[in-house]
Amino acid sequence: MIARSLVAALALAAVSFATSANAQDVAAGEKSFNKCRACHQVGETAKNTVGPVLNGLFGRKSGTIEGYNYTDANKNSGITWDDAVFAEYIKDPKAKIPGTKMAFAGIKKEDEIKDLTAFLKQYGADGKKK
Ligand code: HEC
């Protein structure tokens, strides 16, 4: 009995540790996203501005936000956004998608990219937090 509740307590501790580590990433990612806000919005009220809305990014194809006027370079890149391809892109957007009009030098720090990824992954295609 004691052993069983100990296991349960440990499991619970592991879960809350994982959650708080993730919450930290998300909080750091939110700060990092300030670098994107001049051109991008996320959330339920997000609108296309200089750049497209970034809701539901992971898992969708590049250039598919309705009503946004993408370059052919972005539309035809053949990219489906996942962690790896997003990391490559955000390090140097013009290297990954030559001809893109996204004028952004890039984020080089791996940790910051991970945090930004955690932040963006919260938002489903409808802009609601998952
Ligand atoms: C100066 C404005 C600007 C900034 C700053 C900027 N972007 Fe962009 N972004 C754009 C534009 C414009 C496009 C559309 C590119 C095209 O059509 O070639 C774009 C496209 C994208 C795309 C492709 C979206 C899709 O639907 O295929 C992603 C992902 C993206 N940006 C992420 C980011 C992130 C993350 C940041 C911050 C770290 C950021 N951008 C900062 C202007 C910007």
Automatic annotation (TrEMBL):
Q: Which PROSITE patterns match?
A: CYTC
On whether Signal is a keyword of this UniProt record, the answer is yes
Give the signal peptide range.
1-23
Please tell me whether the keyword Signal is annotated for this protein: yes
Alphabetized, the UniProt keywords read: Electron transport, Heme, Iron, Metal-binding, Signal, Transport
Q: Where is the Cytochrome c domain?
A: 24-124
Family matches, as InterPro entries = Cyt_c-like_dom (IPR009056), Cyt_c-like_dom_sf (IPR036909), Cyt_c_1A/1B (IPR002327)
Q: Please provide, alphabetically and separated by semicolons, the GO molecular function terms listed in this UniProt record.
A: electron transfer activity; heme binding; metal ion binding
What Pfam families does the database record attribute to this sequence? Cytochrom_C
Protein known as? Cytochrome c family protein
Protein's organism: Afipia massiliensis
